[in-house]
Amino acid sequence: MIELQYQDIAYEHIRKIPIYYNNILLGQQETQLIKVENQILLGVFAVKEIDEVMFLTMKARMKHLGIEVGFLANFYEEQLIVERVYNVG
What we know:
Layout: H1 2-6, E1 11-21, E2 24-36, E3 40-45, H2 52-65, E4 69-74, E5 81-86
Parallel strand pairs: 3-4
Antiparallel strand pairs: 1-2, 2-3, 4-5
């Protein structure tokens, strides 16, 4: 986020997302997401492997926020792994 500030790029650090079922608020879920320029959602992790559940969760969050492009960034290994996620339809 420091680099986003330095480059004067608009972003929002999202720490909690409301969870709904049939338009009824069930509560808040803790998360570590960064919404960049209201167009890209970045999920930041340090896990051994990004699995299908993480992709599905990211897609659900993107749909909730109205964002079409996202990235999962995994800092677990020595080299950063970045996976692209699309919210189509």
